[in-house]
């Protein structure tokens, strides 16, 4: 009996020691924007405990400037950042040591938006007009591709950096159009305040399809095994969202104050079909075609093998 008791006590102490020393892996991820339905898989993974189940402590950081997160990843100050495929091509061309390690939204969300009842009826009407943008480099890349189809040069328009203030700047007529407006967000935002917008989609106006939201890391960290656990949690959260949108909307909207409103509710619904179900899967061909497009437009100069910065 004493032997059995000793075995039980020893086993208990051993288990306690293992649990006490269980490693929790910390991941810091810079978001591309303030928290919104585009980030639902991350929020649901946090809310449902999927990160915790895999021993992850994930800190999500909202940027003061949407251009900052990739720079912080390159400097080793963030483990991951949510960024954009077009921006990745430009950053790599400029020598930034970053690489795509996963995908959040594998189809375009970006759009060129004008006031539905405003004077701009066609992209050809934008010559000599003011166009607002938030993220330098990649939004200009999309815009140049769209304008070129209508024989408009970038020098024919006045670009204005309006940071996060896309819809408000357009509604206030500080600019004539905005590039970088997400079709699942800004269009809903404008409709709610009775200033409906009209969207021109890049993929319908001369720009190849691309992955809108991707996860990037420093190239030195591209094979970090902790990322596999992170994406396992993200995949589980995404499937949960698709299978049960009503309950996961409640989880998302209660994550913090300010999320439970009509705009986020509409955007959440409009984003469901756009989340990638396999975040680590990848089609290199998409990246090669977009890189060729950017080179043809003179936006990037180098011919860098896609596989070096787009981890399959």
Can you tell me about this structure?
This protein is α/β, with parallel strands linked by helices. It has two domains: 24-107 and 211-308, Periplasmic binding protein-like II (D-Maltodextrin-Binding Protein, domain 2); 110-204, 3-Layer(aba) Sandwich (D-Maltodextrin-Binding Protein, domain 2). The protein is built from twelve helices and ten strands. It has helices spanning 2-20, 40-47, 50-53, 68-74, 85-93, 138-148, 166-171, 186-192, 225-243, 245-253, 262-271, 284-296; strands spanning 25-30, 56-61, 80-83, 98-105, 110-115, 130-133, 158-161, 177-182, 197-200, 213-218. The strands form two sheets. A five-stranded mixed sheet has the order 2-1-3-10-4, sandwiched between helices. Strands 7-6-8-5-9 form a five-stranded mixed sheet. Strand 6, helix 6 (138-148) and strand 7 form a beta-alpha-beta unit. Helix 2 (40-47) packs across helix 9 and helix 9 packs across helix 10 (245-253). The longest helix has 19 residues, at 2-20. The protein is globular. The termini are far apart. 42% of the residues are buried. The model is unreliable at 16-21 (pLDDT under 50).
Topology summary:
Blueprint: H1 2-20, E1 25-30, H2 40-47, H3 50-53, E2 56-61, H4 68-74, E3 80-83, H5 85-93, E4 98-105, E5 110-115, E6 130-133, H6 138-148, E7 158-161, H7 166-171, E8 177-182, H8 186-192, E9 197-200, E10 213-218, H9 225-243, H10 245-253, H11 262-271, H12 284-296
Helix pairs in contact: 2-9, 5-6, 9-10
User: Which fold does the CATH topology of the largest domain refer to?
Assistant: D-Maltodextrin-Binding Protein, domain 2
* Strand residues, percent: 15-25%
Total domains: 2
Report the major sheet: 5 strands, mixed
With strands numbered from the N-terminus, the spatial order across the biggest sheet is 2-1-3-10-4
Q: What is the general shape?
A: globular
**Distance from first to last alpha carbon:** 57 Å
